[in-house]
Write a structure and sequence with these properties.
Elements (H helix, E strand, L loop, with lengths): L12 H4 L6 E5 L4 H12 L3 E6 L2 H11 L3 E5 L8 H12 L4 E4 L14 H29 L2 E6 L12 H21 L4 E8 L5 H8 L2 H9 L9 H12 L10 E4 L8
Parallel strand pairs: 1-2, 1-4, 2-3, 4-5, 5-6, 6-7
Helix pairs in contact: 2-9, 5-6
The chain binds 1,4-dihydronicotinamide adenine dinucleotide.
Length: 264
């Protein structure tokens, strides 16, 4: 006879969504969506460590995030520094339970004007660095048989958008990486998922959209909910995927987009 264990009986609904006792590393967490991911994770009980290139920005962010936050200055494109960065974080703060690959850059140009240097710059930040950090955290998580890795991708990984060829290639490749690594990491209880934000109200997004009204209208017209997302919409989705409530979820890409990815 098959015996069925109902874990809902064992854990209260608040505890399955809790990140209490866990340490999360959020790249590019000093500003934009990454900052809000940090804020949501702290509210869910986690300790967070944010990274970025500008110490002043990180200092300010940690000041407003409070005692559960700390920072390390790091440029993710300096790939040779990454193994030491992860070692330093774990030496100082303990095991990284959750990795959020948030740092990313974009560039809007017609494909035929994108130089090899342009293309390489985007790929280095959005793809190669993501792989290096994931490998370094992944090998430690695999050894401990525990971990959750979350990639921040984009609508550009789900459908075609003009003038963002390098960005699209990088985010689509990260989507592929999630699939490949799911097969290698999940047997060791290391889950790997992606959140694909739709159009989220950040200063960068608003500036880009306001400078291009036809693009703005096109994006809004295909968003059934009829609004831009807020950065904490992404933050709470990340909390969910990192939490024990998602303990059987691996290899998925979760759009947080007000229906944009299926809008007409
Ligand atoms: P943002 O520009 O406000 O934040 C990006 C963060 O990454 C910044 O903290 C920046 O300092 C950091 N970063 C960039 N290059 C770095 C490097 N070499 N080393 C370390 N840190 C670096 O942009 P936003 O909007 O908050 O984007 C965050 C993530 O969400 C990105 O991966 C982006 O592609 C993704 N995204 C954003 C959307 C939006 O509507 N805002 C939509 C879809 C995806």
């Amino acid at each position: 006879m098959i015996s069925v264990t109902n874990s809902a009986n064992e854990e209260s609904s608040s505890s399955v969504f809790s990140l209490e006792g866990q340490l999360a590393l959020i790249t590019g967490g000093g500003s934009g969506i990454g900052f809000y991911i940090a804020q949501c994770m702290i509210q869910a009980g986690a300790k967070v460590v944010i990274t970025g290139r500008r110490e002043e920005v990180l200092k300010e962010a940690v000041k407003s995030l409070g005692a559960k936050a700390s920072y390390f200055v790091n440029d993710v494109t300096k790939l040779e520094t990454i193994p030491q960065l992860i070692a330093d974080i774990e030496d100082a703060l303990g095991p990284i339970d959750i990795l959020v690959n948030n740092a990313g850059i974009n560039m809007k140009k017609h494909a035929i004007e994108v130089t090899d240097e342009d293309f390489d710059r985007i790929i280095q930040t959005n793809l190669h660095a993501v792989f290096s950090i994931t490998r370094e955290c992944g090998k430690r998580m695999i050894a401990r048989k525990q971990g959750s890795i979350i990639m921040i991708t984009s609508m550009a990984a789900l459908y075609g958008i003009d003038r963002v060829v390098a960005y699209t290639a990088s985010k689509s490749a990260v989507g592929g990486m999630v699939k490949a690594l799911t097969t290698e990491f999940s047997p060791y209880n290391v889950r790997i998922n992606a959140v694909a934000p739709g159009f989220i109200e950040t200063p960068m997004m608003l500036t880009a959209m306001n400078g291009d009204p036809s693009r703005r209208d096109k994006a809004m017209d295909r968003t059934p909910m009829g609004t831009w997302g807020k950065p904490d919409d992404v933050g709470w989705a990340v909390v969910f995927l990192a939490s024990p409530a998602a303990k059987f979820i691996t290899g998925v890409s979760l759009p947080v987009d007000g229906g944009n990815s299926i809008g007409f």
